[in-house]
């Protein structure tokens, strides 16, 4: 079978390696260089190694709790059951997870986990280590790698996906296949402040929408609580939740630990709770919240978090002696293209894995360090499902009518205007009036785009994708009238956030 994998993070490369090992002809099509994207930026680790007193059952319970009742129990069971095998596979493929002097894996704990079960590599460079190992394995495999090829759209024939259209060397090109696996990541660039890589523009999700595949839960964007609020205006830089797992605390402008006002677990409460607590406190006091890691000491900070230590010092902070100003930023999309437990979408021949997919694992709020695990687990499951004929495509998947033809048109405003609208109106703290304003404004921009020139460059295609996904996201947020997990609706207009 000819298989195209679009994307080269942990989910895409895991799927590609498994498909290649199964004898399929595999082409990995990636927007930038192999292994770029959000995976190498991941400071946190991979959950799923169970020490004394821990178990897959307890991991599942923590995941379901974080998901605020909206996680799919079957998907969560698949995640925690397959997790150990996928972590062992990452080790076999060359990922050097941190170990204790006795040779055992060093296990960390992060927010909302009941036990230490998270492995890291290079302290806070887990994603970079995984991306490097999987990229090397892919280049050594039989898979063909096509770099710097931008996904324009899916090729749909007779109700099934049969390839993709890409922009390569500034020219459109069609690549045909028997199956396509979307692994293009999320859509963090919808927002003015994000931890995501610049290329995270919702390309796979937008292409799936245009092709008629079902999407869901786009309103559930997770905002990471602790991104460095650099007064010098540097790019957003994530300060891993693992820092709080090691004992760091959050303090307001008066030096008070305020997170316990919002949740009994304080700084280790679910991410959505901590992020909202930070946003509100910063707005109330007109000053950034501070992350205090001074009690950990310079030596421990440098050895456990070498990347954070290097970057914060380069930006003029000595976090062993002073607190760091932090703010929330858009981080991870829990929704996406709807799939079954094997990555199959509502459109025959189309699979989706990783952050592009809505597997049901995360529900309304992702548990820390479950994202890399999800990519590995469901990437492998999708590859294993490739041999099933299209006639066996899951009957339980809801039928979806083909979408009307959509032409990617040039965004009629600056990308920054769209991002600021989403940040202000469809961000961490939402209200009905703001969501209605956003939906109306996005509809006006969409109407204006209909008479604009057709996209021709990568940037223009990205902007068109952002507008399409923004409209779907804002509409989903408006339709969900109750607060749950990462989707929080204020009874009145929310206070303005301190800019990241």
TrEMBL record:
Cofactor section: FAD
Pfam families, A to Z: FAD_binding_2, Succ_DH_flav_C
Subcellular location, record wording: Cytoplasm
Pathway connected to this protein: Cofactor biosynthesis; NAD(+) biosynthesis; iminoaspartate from L-aspartate (oxidase route): step 1/1
Record-annotated Fumarate reductase/succinate dehydrogenase flavoprotein-like C-terminal domain positions: 415-490
Domain FAD-dependent oxidoreductase 2 FAD-binding: 2-372
Entry EC number(s): 1.4.3.16
Family recorded in the similarity comment: Belongs to the FAD-dependent oxidoreductase 2 family. NadB subfamily.
Protein name: L-aspartate oxidase
Species this chain originates from: Microbacterium istanbulense
Taxonomic path: Bacteria, Bacillati, Actinomycetota, Actinomycetes, Micrococcales
């Amino acid at each position: 079978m000819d298989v195209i994998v679009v994307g080269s993070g942990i989910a895409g490369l895991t799927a590609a390696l498994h498909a290649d090992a199964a004898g399929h002809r595999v082409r990995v099509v990636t927007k930038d260089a192999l292994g770029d994207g959000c995976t190498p930026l991941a400071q946190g680790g991979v959950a799923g190694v169970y020490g004394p007193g821990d178990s897959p059952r307890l991991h599942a319970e923590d995941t379901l709790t974080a998901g605020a009742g909206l996680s799919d129990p079957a998907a969560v069971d698949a995640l925690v059951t397959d997790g150990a095998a996928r972590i062992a596979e990452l080790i076999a493929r060359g990922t050097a997870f941190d170990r204790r002097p006795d040779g055992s894996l060093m296990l960390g704990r992060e927010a909302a986990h009941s036990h230490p079960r998270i492995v890291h590599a290079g302290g806070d460079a887990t994603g970079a280590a995984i991306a490097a190992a999987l990229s090397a394995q892919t280049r050594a495999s039989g898979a063909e790698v096509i770099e710097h090829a931008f996904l324009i759209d899916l090729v749909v024939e007779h109700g099934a996906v049969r390839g993709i259209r890409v922009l390569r060397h500034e020219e459109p090109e069609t690549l045909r296949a028997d199956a396509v696996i979307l692994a293009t990541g999320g859509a963090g660039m919808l927002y003015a402040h994000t931890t995501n890589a610049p290329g995270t523009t919702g390309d796979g999700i937008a292409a799936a929408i245009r092709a008629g595949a079902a999407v869901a839960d786009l309103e559930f964007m997770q905002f990471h609580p602790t991104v460095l609020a650099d007064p010098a205006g540097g790019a957003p830089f994530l300060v891993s939740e693992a820092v709080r797992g090691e004992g760091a605390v959050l303090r307001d402008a008066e030096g008070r630990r305020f997170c316990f006002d919002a949740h009994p677990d304080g700084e280790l409460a679910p991410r959505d709770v901590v992020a909202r607590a930070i946003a509100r406190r910063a707005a109330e006091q007109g000053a950034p919240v501070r992350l205090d890691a001074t009690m950990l000491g310079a030596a421990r900070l440098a050895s456990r978090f070498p990347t954070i230590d290097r970057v914060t010092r380069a930006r003029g902070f000595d976090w062993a002696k002073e607190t760091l100003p932090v703010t929330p930023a858009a981080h991870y999309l829990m929704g996406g293209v709807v799939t079954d437990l094997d990555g199959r979408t509502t459109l025959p021949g189309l699979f989706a894995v990783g952050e592009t997919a809505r597997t049901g694992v995360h529900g309304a709020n992702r548990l820390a360090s479950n994202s890399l695990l999800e990519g590995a687990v469901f990437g492998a499951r999708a590859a294993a499902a490739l041999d099933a004929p299209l006639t066996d495509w899951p009957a339980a998947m809801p039928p979806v009518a083909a979408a009307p033809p959509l032409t990617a048109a040039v965004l009629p405003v600056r990308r920054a205007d769209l991002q600021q609208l989403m940040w202000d109106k469809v961000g961490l703290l939402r209200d009905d009036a703001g969501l209605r304003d956003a939906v109306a404004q996005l509809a006006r921009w969409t109407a204006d785009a209909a008479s604009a020139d057709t996209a021709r460059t990568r940037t223009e295609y990205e902007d068109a994708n952002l507008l399409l996904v923004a409209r779907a996201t804002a509409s989903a947020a408006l339709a969900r009238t109750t607060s749950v997990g990462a989707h929080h609706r204020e009874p009145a207009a929310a206070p303005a956030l301190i800019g990241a």
